[in-house]
């Protein structure tokens, strides 16, 4: 039943503790049995999760993983998002496939720039957010400062659901406002091992703080949270097990089951009989031996059965899905059936791409899977000019996956790649060499950003005649204005009021 599904992502800044929290959630759900399995270095981890060469070299996760676990009759689909500075569109698009998010904040650092960016995407889609303030067992900023920052920076009502009894050296546990009980640290490592003090004595200075915290914020309202206007805030320490069970309980009780998804003809409800879904990620070469290609599909409606025929919007002819995959990180199992909210992997040879809608009758087009205007543009220069054909194939493949965007200038032979974060460029060069045996260099492009052009044909033709040197086509053949600066974009918009210069493009 889809009402028993919770599909969510964890968003955070690097080092806020996302990997540790993910691991503890999986431990609680029985999906792993040993703390450290998700993070362990060496072959065991590489074999499962960090399969891409650049990930092995840098020790970070570049691609989003999907992890499924069960607890208390609820199936949780956790979509992991890359947490380093140079995150990619992959991260953005993962957020289109979830029904809610957990935002992890470091108690010492508060909200950092990347968290804000990810939050904006959640806001765009009204994705409800539960906030987890991590590392309260270390020295951190005062709880009220952190709450005020969340409220101001993200324009959300905040409701503390728990409160740390001291921080750092003074840390004596976490008070749950709903029960009035305190989870206490034990042993030399001062972890939470299950000791709950139901009639706690709170020292005077902390008692006053807690009364203020309870009285000074609005009551928690499930509807306001589900509408994306309010965030419940839990304080804890993923490393020391504080707040982890409370977080799972909050996801169980408050987080929405699979939500309707926006489509051309209106929203598609999860209760609709027809099976439908959309591809939010394509991953090639997860197994380099087989040159495989997996499309990740978020199931929106209907009960999917293995062997079913679905028609992708980009293709027009049905494909039979014989070997759908369910995921635990990079471990896979064949899925016999799936419900709305589930994520299944569909092996294919380049027929499915990001943004495709799949349905039984080919009459549904999901919306809201955007391409974002690139923030970095580079020219691609081949070291061996005879490999032009291989380069074109590689760039098409990688843009299909959402690793990069490719622009083919109307004048001039050098292709331009666009990315949202610097790391994507390193991934591009590394994968060109490792998977396509193409050596290429990236040179600065004369452009600063790109905008998709729309408008009446006559106005577009006139604009094209005057600006051919600044125009390119993307891989779909759509017209793109390559701008030398933000000023350039503004100037052209003023001069050409009939045209829209868009920073996003729906897939």
Automatic annotation (TrEMBL):
Tagged with keyword Nucleotidyltransferase: no
Cellular-component GO terms for this entry: cytosol
Alphabetical keyword list: Cytoplasm, GTP-binding, Nucleotide-binding, Protein biosynthesis
Family label: Belongs to the TRAFAC class translation factor GTPase superfamily. Classic translation factor GTPase family. PrfC subfamily.
InterPro entries: EF-G-like_DII, EFG_III/V, G_TR_CS, P-loop_NTPase, PrfC, RF3_C, RF3_dom_3_sf, RF3_GTP-bd
Location relative to the cell: Cytoplasm
GO BP annotation list: regulation of translational termination
Function: Increases the formation of ribosomal termination complexes and stimulates activities of RF-1 and RF-2. It binds guanine nucleotides and has strong preference for UGA stop codons. It may interact directly with the ribosome. The stimulation of RF-1 and RF-2 is significantly reduced by GTP and GDP, but not by GMP.
Lineage per the UniProt record: Bacteria, Pseudomonadati, Pseudomonadota, Alphaproteobacteria, Sphingomonadales
Binding site for GTP: 12-19, 80-84, 134-137
Signal peptide range in chain numbering: none
Protein name listed in UniProt: Peptide chain release factor 3
Domain Tr-type G: 3-259
Entry's Gene Ontology molecular function annotations: GTP binding; GTPase activity; guanosine tetraphosphate binding; translation release factor activity, codon nonspecific; translation release factor activity, codon specific
């Amino acid at each position: 039943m889809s009402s028993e599904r919770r599909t969510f992502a964890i968003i955070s800044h690097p080092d806020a503790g996302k990997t540790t929290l993910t691991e503890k959630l999986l431990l609680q759900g029985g999906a792993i049995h040993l703390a450290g399995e998700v993070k362990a270095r060496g072959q065991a981890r590489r074999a499962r999760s960090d399969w891409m060469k650049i990930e092995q070299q840098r020790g970070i996760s570049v691609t989003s993983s999907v992890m499924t676990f069960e607890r208390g009759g609820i199936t949780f689909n956790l979509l992991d998002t890359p947490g380093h500075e140079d995150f990619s569109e992959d991260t953005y698009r993962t957020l289109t496939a979830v029904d809610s998010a957990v935002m992890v904040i470091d108690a010492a650092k508060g909200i950092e720039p990347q968290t804000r960016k990810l939050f904006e995407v959640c806001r765009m889609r009204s994705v409800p957010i539960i906030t987890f303030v991590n590392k309260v067992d270390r020295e951190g900023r005062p709880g009220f400062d952190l709450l005020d920052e969340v409220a101001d920076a993200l324009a959300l009502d905040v409701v503390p659901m728990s409160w740390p009894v001291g921080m750092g050296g003074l840390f004596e546990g976490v008070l749950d406002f709903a029960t009035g009980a305190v989870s206490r640290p034990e042993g030399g490592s001062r972890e939470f091992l299950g000791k709950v003090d139901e009639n706690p004595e709170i020292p005077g200075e902390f008692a006053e703080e807690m009364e203020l915290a309870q009285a000074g914020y609005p009551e928690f309202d499930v509807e306001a949270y589900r509408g994306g206007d309010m965030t419940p805030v839990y304080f804890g320490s993923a490393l020391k097990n504080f707040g982890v069970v409370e977080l799972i309980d909050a996801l169980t009780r408050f987080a929405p089951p699979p939500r309707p998804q926006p489509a051309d003809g209106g929203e598609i409800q999860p209760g609709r009989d027809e099976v439908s879904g959309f591809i939010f990620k394509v991953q090639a070469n997860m197994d380099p031996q087989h040159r495989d290609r997996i499309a990740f599909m978020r199931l929106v409606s209907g009960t999917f059965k293995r062997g079913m025929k679905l028609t992708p919007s980009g293709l027009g002819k049905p494909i039979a899905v014989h070997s759908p995959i369910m995921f635990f990180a990079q471990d896979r199992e064949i899925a016999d059936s799936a419900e709305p909210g589930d994520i299944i992997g569909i092996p294919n040879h380049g027929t499915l791409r990001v943004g495709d809608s799949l349905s039984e009758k080919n009459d549904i087009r999901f919306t809201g899977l955007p391409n974002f205007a690139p923030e970095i543009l580079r020219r691609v220069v081949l070291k061996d000019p005879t490999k032009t054909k291989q380069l074109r194939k590689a760039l098409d493949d990688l843009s299909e996956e959402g690793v990069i965007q490719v622009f083919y200038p109307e004048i001039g032979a050098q292709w331009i790649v666009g990315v949202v974060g610097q790391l994507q460029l390193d991934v591009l060069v590394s994968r060109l060499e490792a998977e396509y045996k193409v050596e290429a260099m990236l040179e600065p492009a004369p452009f600063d950003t790109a905008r998709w052009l729309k408008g009446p044909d006559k106005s577009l033709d006139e604009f094209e005649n005057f600006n051919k040197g600044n125009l390119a086509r993307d891989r779909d053949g759509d017209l793109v204005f390559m701008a030398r600066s933000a000023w350039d974009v503004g100037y052209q918009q003023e001069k050409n009021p009939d045209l829209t210069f868009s920073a996003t493009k729906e897939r």
